[in-house]
Amino acid sequence: xxxxxxxxxxxxxxxxxxxxxxxxxxxxxxxxxxxxxxxxxxxxxxxxxxxxxxxxxxxxxxxxxxxxxxxxxxxxxxxxxxxxxxxxxxxxxxxxxxxxxxxxxxxxxxxxxxxxxxxxxxxxxxxxxxxxxxxxxxxxxxxxxxxxxxxxxxxxxxxxxxxxxxxxxxxxxxxxxxxxxxxxxxxxxxxxxxxxxxxxxxxxxxxxxxxxxxxxxxxxxxxxxxxxxxxxxxxxxxxxxxxxxxxxxxxxxxxxxxxxxxxxxxxxxxxxxxxxxxxxxxxxxxxxxxxxxxxxxxxxxxxxxxxxxxxxxxxxxxxxxxxxxxxxxxxxxxxxxxxxxxxxxxxxxxxxxxxxxxxxxxxxxxxxxxxxxxxxxxxxxxxxxxxxxxxxxxxxxxxxxxxxxxxxxxxxxxxxxxxxxxxxxxxxxxxxxxxxxxxxxxxxxxxxxxxxxxxxxxxxxxxxxxxxxxxxxxxxxxxxxxxxxxxxxxxxxxxxxxx
Amino acid sequence: xxxxxxxxxxxxxxxxxxxxxxxxxxxxxxxxxxxxxxxxxxxxxxxxxxxxxxxxxxxxxxxxxxxxxxxxxxxxxxxxxxxxxxxxxxxxxxxxxxxxxxxxxxxxxxxxxxxxxxxxxxxxxxxxxxxxxxxxxxxxxxxxxxxxxxxxxxxxxxxxxxxxxxxxxxxxxxxxxxxxxxxxxxxxxxxxxxxxxxxxxxxxxxxxxxxxxxxxxxxxxxxxxxxxxxxxxxxxxxxxxxxxxxxxxxxxxxxxxxxxxxxxxxxxxxxxxxxxxxxxxxxxxxxxxxxxxxxxxxxxxxxxxxxxxxxxxxxxxxxxxxxxxxx
Lengths: 499, 327
Description:
- The complex is a heterodimer.
- Helices cover 32% and strands 25% of the residues of chain A.
- Chain A is α/β, with parallel strands linked by helices.
- Chain A folds into two domains: 5-90 and 142-238, 3-Layer(aba) Sandwich (Rossmann fold), CATH 3.40.50.300; 256-492, 3-Layer(aba) Sandwich (Rossmann fold), CATH 3.40.50.
- In chain A, helix 5 packs parallel to helix 6.
- Chain B is mostly helical.
- Helix content of chain B is 74%, strand content 1%.
- Chain B has 14 helices and two strands, in the order αααααααββααααααα.
- Chain B has a two-stranded antiparallel ribbon.
- In chain B, helix 4 runs parallel beside helix 6 (124-143).
- Chain B is globular and about 55 Å long.
- At the A-B interface, helix 10 and helix 11 of A face helix 9 and helix 10 of B.
């Protein structure tokens, strides 16, 4: 079989950094070829070169044996190379059909938009994909998984030969991932070459044929997925053996820190009751859209409750705003760190100190800059945040380090109860492992963690106790021993006729 | 070393532009560098400086206030009408009347702007557009369209008076207006750069959701910032009234554009999250220097507008290209 796309000895140098050095790989039609590597290994740089965003410093790209010199993404797109980005590029106020044909709208003879044809062709694609969506519906009303399907519909209408998917499953539930894989299989049958990026290694066996491992901008090796194992891949990714990845430890449970009873917010969640103790990591599992995030936001005072009671250390509280929750030593690490977790254009110290400034202000409301710098330095050391200094702008840090900054922020705010919503999404294996260690240390000192996660191995590997949510309700609670993937999936799945 | 110089230059383009402009005008006209002219300059830039100071807060929040010119006019009118009640006022009474008018009228207009934005979610551009029209309309209503004349001489001390009177300068050297402005600007600069409130302004402008989830009272920060912006506009307005020794309903027309220009020239990002009062002052200085220098060279004031507009465009383009480079 001839490869459809070949990259040969590709290099990319940024000022001061060799992002890629002599990377070569072949991509075959009808195959899913996964790129794996830690953050900063060069995966994004490689796909940006393939899709024409970056111009390589050295090396060649061949498409169907013809050398390509992409100067911009448009040229790559015209040659049939599409990218589905991790952050979806859907225009919310346009319809599904308008999104699918964006930039390639069908026209009538007089040059005006042929809306009828556009809607019909879009609907044909949606039907072909066996999706229950109307092409005239607004993209705003779709959930993340459905928007992703629209992206794939786009790719199909463009008849792309090569499709790059950058972490397509990172915000999907297990259920939605299966639906996605179904579409990927259809693309494969149509001889499309798929370049796939993921941090979830167990997806490899399920969907991929080939895997290329990158480390520090270099090509380590390319293997057939059927000839390798997850351990081998992880080892080549990090360049060393990772022992106990989750650093799982039993904790000694202390007194009850948080108890909620009958929390209800109509149309989102109903009758939620649970408790969490000092010295405990409580895992909250369930499908995306089961209402987990909404419950956490309501507990934190960021969304209103219709009814229900919240007790912190035995005393009943009701938070009208996050400010009051913070005063009761609760911290919330949101699921979307770039949008709701960090001030990306601000310095590390400004981010880290933000919730605690009021507590540490000097007379007349002046900032205590000495305190700020001291505490910032202390926590950058403690959490091993890798950055040139405390004045570094957050945008330039890796995902793992950004997440540590958020953790430091709540530790400095003296949080005793930490709510973590998808805390390790999109961060690499090493950073994850470090993050779990920090979580364990926090709990061992008497802290209480409530962790929402869609990654089953993470839930099982880290939690002392697991509650599972389904369609806005708690469908079960499992002890550490009972929590297996199978039990959790059973409790989380929606049992309806369509299944 | 070379890199460091480059870095400093790119971060301080306004300073460089200001120096270059001064040199150019200095060479073109001998009067420019006389101490008298330079002191005049500080007084000429004062009104714009006051307006730009408060506006900096609002723009850092990611908002805008285009009502500052009209709010200034209304405050000036009110101070003049109030001043008429005291035909033989002392300097002290005059200052009380002026400053109180500025704070009360400016603060009230700012509060209405802030409440509309926080309580009713009206877009800042529209809220302040409405306020711009309302305040201007009220200025004409109160005065019947006629300037308010007949104010005591002491009324003019704040805006036109000078202190330190050596024998050679019987009219005095340092304009009171310059000192008054410097005090306000210093206070506003410290409030923004050294206090927890100031940091909260940056946080809200940088990412409102993060600020809210970090326990910041976002609406309070926004409201207070618009009030401050109203107050500095009001103070600017009473300075105009005092300087002219009368109340003009048409005063401050178009000043919002100069104030926004000064703020942007000073590097405050219209997207919010960054900027500083101190730097906005460099922006004010550039505009004042261009006006002053071109006046000295007897270039028509119509051309001055064209030049200032072009300089703003140039500054923003420069600013954007820098941001691209740092990414």
